[in-house]
TrEMBL record:
SUPFAM superfamilies: Periplasmic binding protein-like I. GO terms for biological process: amino acid transport. It comes from Xanthobacter flavus. Residues 1-22 form the signal peptide. This is Amino acid ABC transporter substrate-binding protein. Transmembrane segments: none annotated. It comes from the Bacteria. Keywords: Amino-acid transport, Signal, Transport. Pfam families: Peripla_BP_6 (PF13458). Belongs to the leucine-binding protein family. Residues 30-387 form the Leucine-binding protein domain.
């Protein structure tokens, strides 16, 4: 990925955007943040689900007195693509004068928006996008609480060795692996790390097949997998392409021994309902923490789910809301510790955070590298069983044993 120098970015943005009209500062007693997510377009479902976790964290904090005596207010920004993410980040920082931005769910949106905030010296708190370069560009004010694409890919490949092969009474190297992925930054990044990890572990990858997330026919992909005899399929996908894959896999009579997703569409009840619980049965998912997880490993998860249902009238649709809730709470605590929204003071406070693994509602800990990446966020392995996504690994977080096979028998 081509990265731009800070000076070049500044020059390009100044040339492209008219000067914003100055606006009055926030009223005394409030602190304003931006909430930048895809609220419309093809990513809207998980964008909104992610936002709900942030919103609940705000309400919880305000009920406890706010941040250093100030009530938290947030201004929403809708980003359906990278260009709009840039525009909304400019508006939030230049016009609305927010003290920080929280988001984003999508890696391509986060990469674009954080270029704006870094130039403006405004902290950006990423709570859900997983592409590694987000925190690998040398930016000073970008921080992320969730795991990265490399973490997801490594867990997926390692799960073939540690969980799938033993369950099938097979040697890991004897299994034929197919890697398929939507072709945006999300899919490209995860699949790249999957290929590297599989090679490192001596696994047999027989196909690597990219496709557009907007595809209306994945039959050619499925037929390639079927022809290659892929035993295990690793898919990196959003919701629509996940649904399409499962429907057309059934149409083509293709039943691999295991199918595993990298979060995204694999994590939502909407996907399961669209595909049918009987067809999704046994599908594996390496993902953010989901709600059927042992609360001893994720204290507060049960209480969060209850708060969610009380506010929105339904069960949480995905663990994305939980991840955003946990991340927002970590950063609110850091800002409170800084006793300021000054970017340098906030950075120092974030880098001082030290929460052991197993002490948050996601089960993650929090300890940030100099690059702003949380080094204590680890994705779990889950599986669809009986219409529910249940944690099956690691053992202390599991609530069920892993089953073999895809689809109802």
């Amino acid at each position: 990925m081509k990265m731009f120098a800070r000076a070049a970015l500044a020059a390009a943005m100044l040339a492209a955007v008219p000067l914003a009209v100055a606006q009055p500062a926030a009223a005394q007693g409030t602190v304003k943040f931006g909430a930048l997510y895809p609220f419309s377009g093809t990513l809207a479902l998980l964008g909104d689900e992610s936002f709900r976790g942030f919103e609940l964290a705000v309400e919880e904090r305000n009920a406890a007195g706010g941040l250093n005596g100030q009530k938290i207010e947030f201004i929403k920004g809708d980003a359906v693509d990278p260009n709009q993410a840039v525009g909304e980040a400019r508006r939030l920082t230049s016009v609305d004068k927010v003290s920080a931005i929280f988001g984003t769910y999508s890696s391509s949106l986060s990469l674009a928006a954080t270029q704006v905030t870094e130039l403006a010296n405004v902290p950006y708190f990423e709570l859900g996008a997983i592409s590694d370069p987000i925190t690998e560009r040398g930016f000073k004010y970008v921080f992320r609480t969730n795991a990265t694409a490399r973490d997801f890919a490594n867990r997926m490949v390692d799960s073939i060795i540690e969980a799938i092969a033993p369950a099938l009474n097979a040697k890991p190297g004897d299994l034929k692996i197919g890697i398929i992925h939507e072709d945006s930054l999300y899919g490209q990044t995860v699949s790249g790390y999957q290929k590297s990890r599989a090679k490192e572990k001596g696994l047999n990858v027989v196909e690597v097949l990219p496709y557009s997330a907007k595809s209306v026919d994945l039959t050619p992909v499925i037929l390639r997998l079927k022809s290659a005899g892929a035993d295990v399929v690793l898919q990196t996908s959003y919701q629509n392409d996940t649904v399409l894959f499962f429907r057309q896999m059934k149409d083509q009579g293709y039943k691999p021994k295991a199918v595993m997703g990298a979060g995204g569409g694999y994590s939502t009840r909407d996907t399961m309902q669209a595909v049918g619980a009987e067809n999704m049965e046994g599908a594996l998912d390496v993902d953010f923490t989901q709600y059927n997880t042992n609360p001893k490993a994720a204290p507060g998860i049960t209480e969060f789910a209850a708060k969610y249902k009380a506010k929105y009238g339904i069960e949480p649709r995905s663990g994305h809301s939980l991840a955003n809730y946990m991340g927002a709470k970590v950063f609110f605590d850091a800002i409170a510790s800084a006793k300021s929204t000054d970017a340098d003071k906030v950075r120092a406070a974030v880098l001082a955070v030290d929460i052991p693994v197993g002490q948050t509602a996601t089960g993650w800990g929090a300890k940030f590298s100099e690059q702003g990446q949380n080094t204590r966020a680890v994705p779990f392995l889950m599986q669809w069983q009986g219409g529910n996504l249940v944690t099956v690994f690691p053992a202390d977080a599991a609530v069920a044993k892993m089953k073999t096979g895809i689809g109802a028998n």
